[in-house]
Structure formats: structure tokens, C-alpha cells
């Protein structure tokens, strides 16, 4: 059975998509079969793999809302990474989900159709703790929390962890895989301060791998590439490969 | 009457809160009476002004949901800046708003109670185009779109502009005050590329002022200060003062 991992944090811009995309690429390089599910209406993960999100006939919103639309109809592949894309129609799905029975477990019900085909399923989430992220957490065994090195991110962790605890009451499988420090720059005091605070509060729940700030990570999506494709020898790609190895040890 | 400005973009981490906080401070330095409304459940703007968001008896969620709770009961002041704070209870308000009559104009109805006391009302929004941002846009005359220099932000503008156009059909006062480039670093190709693309597509709608990357802007909130208080002579504070002047010319 696949390890299902939600990559979430309601703080915006902390590196959720960059982590979902590059951890998928890293695990694939290590020989794992990976499905990346895009649960963000922005569709950033889908875009990075070159999917034209504006012309999709089916996307994650159909999978969540329509019992007759099966998961296998919404899977694209790039190399040995499979992607289940989203687009802004997911904003309407979010509103409609609020009125549905079993609104929090729509993804969990559908993911069973494809789970056995993969070693890992990663789920990229929007910057919120609403029904889309709840669906991802209800379907998952693990969650990774990317945290960029800023004051707002530190305070935001408490809010995300509170939502995880709510979900853990219903999904007994859910555990925290780790807190991932992103955009780390050892020359800045604030980076070292945030890292020290996180290690102090969360101890070994903080990944040993920190993702360093690397302009190649910002440039790669514009070329519709993962960092590993764009700049194999760069900081970003080696950090995400190190993270992939650490994830394999922790699951 | 006050100029009411929504600071929004569903792309996370593009500098909405940093702009809301420091533009408020800049306009106040220029002698304007400013109210900052925090419409983000994270409560980052509120936190920056030292408000203990966990112990609030009243917050923006009460203003939106309860006809009997008046705006004036939810206003704190720091110097000559007033703040209407939020906290994570706004997540529940968002869910409940979906079931209410006139869900999109709750803020517009209440803002009338205090509008005449201010020259500017700025509204910090969450990273989404849901009901909270719609409430802010329905109550506003203007919107500012912070855009950080990355690929995902460029593609996200289209989605936010689509939502603005929807709202403009009902709120005839709403206009785009400007697109604000944030985290600009002239040494990076991607910064120059994003700036060129924005000026190409949006011409004079792009503010002449770009907010340069400045670590002091990341450090200031941790000291519960605006950049103007924390580092008067820094890049960040002078860029936000320049923006404040440009806003005064544009309204
Ligand atoms: N380690 C890094 N070094 C440099 N830039 C990075 C790094 N990680 C992410 N970025 C850039 O920072 C921006 C924000 O990252 P990203 O979009 O992955 O965050 P997110 O949490 O998915 O955002 P959202 O909340 O909008 O979903 C992007 O432009 C991305 O390219
Ligand atoms: N010009 C800048 N230079 C350096 N750091 C910046 C700059 N602007 C913002 N930051 C930092 O980048 C991070 C993201 O900014 P901010 O939180 O203001 O964005 P946001 O759009 O409000 O995020 P969210 O989508 O979560 O509401 C913060 O840590 C902030 O301190
Ligand atoms: Mg993202
Ligand atoms: Mg913010």
C-alpha cells in the first residue's frame, strides 16, 4: 500500500508546492512510483509538470464532487511521476463540498481506487485549513509541514497543528512525518533563530534536512521543470534528494 | 469619506500582510488617519501590532456574523493607526457565511459605521479568493495586488483579476489601484523578467515603486514593529514610504 503524505500549512508561500514537486521528483529518482495530487485551486503543482490547467475536461473538483468520475480518468504522467491535476474550478468545489454528506472524506473514498499502483502519494494543499486540506489529511497516513524562516510562519504552526489534532480524532492513521525548514540561509540571524526555536519545541519532529534558499528553485517552475531536472548539481536539488532519503528512513 | 483599499492575492506569501502593515505605517507618517482591518484568520496583521489574538473577546468574525456587534467595539489603536483584529475563529465565520443571506456584503454593511473617522481603510486578506476576500472587495473602492517575483505568482494574477471582474459587476466603485512588485532583487534575472512581463501586460497599472527584498522586513514583525519603526533608514521602510506617496497621488 502507498504511503499517503499531505504537504500542508495555511501560511502562504512557505514552500508547499516546491516541496510537493521536488520531493516527488526525488522519490522517483530513488526508484519509487509516485502520484502527486494537486488539491490547490491555483494548480501550481499541475502547471509545473506542464499540464495546461485551463483546458482540463476533468480535474480534482470532478473527482471530489461526482461519484461517477473515477480517479484513473484524471491522471497525467511525466516520466515515472503521475499527477492528478487541479485548476480554479476547485474553488467552486470547495463551496459545494460544504453542503455535501461526508464532505471531509470525499478524497479518502476515491483514493482507494488507485492507491495500490503507487509507493508514495503526495498531496499539495492550498494555503488554508479548510475543507480541501481536511480532505487531504483525512486520506493521509502522514503530513509534512514546510515552514519558511519568518515570524508569521512560526506562529502559524500552532493553527495548523490544531487542525491536525482535530483530524487525528477521526483518522487514527495520521501522524506528523516532520516539520521541514525551507528557504534557509545560514548567513541570516532570523534563519538560525527560527531553526533553533523549531528544534527546541518540536525536537526530532524537525527534519535534519533543511532546504536552503536557492534561486534555481524559483527559476525551475518557469521552465516547467523540477529542480532535479533544471539544475541537478544545485543546492535545491541536492537538499530535496537528501529530504527524499530522510523520508524513506522515517516512513 | 475614507479611501477603502483591499490588499489581496490568492497566491500565498507574496507580501499582502507586509504591505498592509507598512503601507498603514507609511500613510500614518504622512499624517493620514488609518484603519487596518485584518480579514485573514491567521491574524498576522493583528499580531504585528502586538494584539494578543488568542484572548480576543470580539474579533472580525463577530462583526461579520452578528448584527448586534458594532464595528467600534473591535478597534485597537497603536499610535495613530487603528486595527480591527482577527484570529482563527474567522475560519468558522467563513464556513457559516456560506449559509447566510447577503453573505458577500456583511463587511460593507458594517464598515459604514466607522468609515467617516478615517482617511484610509486598508484590508489585509487571506491567500484565497473565497468569501472573506469577496467581502473585502465588495466593501472597497480600490485593490492593491502584491506580486512576488516568482513563476507561480505571475500565473496567479489572472485568477485574482477574474475574481475582481466578478465583483466589479456588483460593486461599481471598485478599481485596481495598482500591481505592486515585492521581494525585488535587481541582481536576479527572474526579478527583472517578472518586472518586464508585468509592465508589458499591465503598463501603468504597475506601481513605479517596487519593494526590494530586505531582511529587515522579515525581522520587524518578530519585534512587533512595522519596518518604519524597526529600521527607519532601511530599504524596506523607504520603499514603503515611497509607495505611500505614490498611493496618495493615485487615489
Ligand atoms: N528554498 C527555496 N529557495 C528559493 N525560493 C524558493 C524556495 N522554496 C520556494 N521558493 C519560491 O518561493 C515561492 C513560494 O514557494 P511555493 O509557491 O512553493 O510556496 P507554497 O507554500 O506552495 O505557496 P502557496 O501558499 O501559494 O501554495 C515560489 O516562488 C518558489 O519558487
Ligand atoms: N520585501 C521583502 N523582503 C524580504 N522579506 C519579505 C518582504 N516582503 C515580505 N517578506 C517576508 O516574506 C514572508 C511572506 O510575506 P507576508 O507574510 O507578508 O505575505 P502574505 O502574502 O501576507 O502571506 P499569506 O499568503 O500567508 O497571507 C514573510 O516572512 C515576510 O516577512
Ligand atoms: Mg502552493
Ligand atoms: Mg498575510
What overall geometry of chain A do the principal axes of the alpha carbons give?
globular
- Strand order of the biggest β-sheet of chain A: 3-4-2-5-1-6-7
Biggest sheet architecture of chain A: 7 strands, mixed
H-E order of chain A: EHEHHEEHHEHEHEHHHH
Question: What Rg of chain A, in angstroms, do the CA atoms define?
Answer: 17 Å
Number of helices of chain A: 11
Bound molecules: adenosine-5'-triphosphate, magnesium ion
How much of the residues of chain A is beta strand, in percent? 5-15%
- Provide mean pLDDT of chain A, rounded: 96
- Kindly name the structural category of chain A: alpha/beta
The end-to-end span of chain A amounts to 12 Å
> Uncertain spans of chain A, ≥5 residues at pLDDT below 50?
none
Q: Biggest interface and its residues per chain?
A: A-B, 39 and 39 residues
Helix content of chain A: 40-55%
Oligomer classification: homodimer
Structure description:
2 copies of one chain form a homodimer. The longest helix of chain A has 20 residues, at about 150-170. The model of chain A has no long low-confidence stretch (mean pLDDT about 95). Chain A contains 11 helices and 7 strands. In chain A, strands 3-4-2-5-1-6-7 form a 7-stranded mixed beta sheet, with helices on both faces. Chain A is of the alpha/beta class and about 250 residues long. Chain A starts with a strand and ends with a helix. In chain A, helix 1 (about 15-30) crosses helix 11 (about 235-250). Chain A has helices at about 15-30, 45-50, 60-65, 90-95, 105-110, 130-140, 150-170, 190-200, 215-220, 225-230, 235-250; strands spanning about 5, 35-40, 75-80, 80-85, 120-125, 140-150, 175-180. The interface between A and B is large, with 39 and 39 residues. One magnesium ion binds near residues 16, 17, 40 and 44 of chain B.
Amino acid at each position: 500500500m502507498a504511503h499517503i503524505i499531505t504537504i500542508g500549512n495555511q501560511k502562504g508561500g512557505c514552500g508547499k508546492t516546491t516541496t510537493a514537486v521536488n520531493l516527488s521528483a526525488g522519490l522517483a529518482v530513488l526508484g519509487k512510483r509516485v502520484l502527486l495530487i494537486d488539491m490547490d485551486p491555483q494548480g501550481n503543482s499541475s502547471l509545473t509538470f506542464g499540464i495546461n490547467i485551463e483546458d482540463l475536461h476533468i480535474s480534482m473538483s470532478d473527482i471530489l464532487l461526482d461519484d461517477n468520475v473515477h480517479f484513473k480518468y484524471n491522471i497525467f504522467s511525466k516520466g515515472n511521476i503521475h499527477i492528478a491535476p487541479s485548476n480554479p474550478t476547485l474553488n467552486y468545489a470547495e463551496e459545494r463540498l460544504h453542503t455535501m454528506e461526508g464532505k471531509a472524506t470525499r478524497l479518502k473514498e476515491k483514493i482507494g481506487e488507485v492507491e495500490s499502483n503507487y509507493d508514495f502519494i503526495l498531496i499539495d494543499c492550498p494555503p488554508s485549513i479548510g475543507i480541501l486540506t481536511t480532505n487531504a489529511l483525512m486520506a493521509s497516513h502522514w503530513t509534512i509541514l514546510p515552514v519558511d524562516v519568518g515570524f508569521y510562519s512560526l506562529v502559524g504552526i500552532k493553527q495548523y497543528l490544531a487542525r491536525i489534532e482535530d483530524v487525528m480524532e477521526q483518522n487514527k492513521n495520521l501522524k506528523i512525518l516532520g516539520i521541514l525548514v525551507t528557504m534557509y540561509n545560514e548567513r541570516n540571524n532570523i534563519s538560525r533563530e527560527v531553526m533553533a526555536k523549531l528544534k527546541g519545541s518540536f525536537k526530532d519532529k524537525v527534519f535534519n534536512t533543511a532546504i536552503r534558499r536557492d534561486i534555481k528553485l524559483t527559476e525551475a517552475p518557469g521552465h516547467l521543470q523540477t529542480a532535479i531536472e533544471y539544475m541537478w548539481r544545485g543546492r535545491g536539488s541536492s537538499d530535496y534528494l537528501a529530504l527524499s532519503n530522510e523520508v524513506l528512513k522515517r516512513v
